[in-house]
Write the structure tokens for this entry.
Amino acid sequence: MNHAFPCGTLPLDFVGTLRARRNDLPTEKLATPELLDDWFVESGMLDLAPGASEVDLALAVDLRESIYSLVVARMDGTPLPTAAVAELNLQASGMPVTLRLGPHGATRTGSVAQGLAALAREAVEIIGGEDGDLLRECARPECTQTYLDRSRGHRREWCAMRTCGNRVKAATYRARQHSAQS
């Protein structure tokens, strides 16, 4: 697998395809149209690769960055950026992914535009709805993944315990051990 899905919501996992945003050189997980195809299939949004082009990739990155800027604005309680709202609404107005029932069950197929429309619609529901109050950014300094904090008490700190949470806890443990030995 080329992609990770720690958030439990596809639009926020999609935002996470640009890793370590605050680093001098963030890691781009959508560097090629083939990686975009992989994202759609690995996420379960589509059963078959949509055959992304360079133009599709540029549209996907634009949508990803619009979603991120809207998520940050919602978390900060600042006005939503007008251009990002327009981009999200434009993408959300697209055709849905095609769902068909066949002899082997349901299949999901579609173009990149259809996949982006589905992501945009779900992002509208998150950012524009009550779930927007649950938006958080991972507390690990090197991580910029956003997620919905559905924990009891809303005290979740990390995008995923198995990755960032374990790294932070291990680093804290090592620091305690090092200071105890000094």
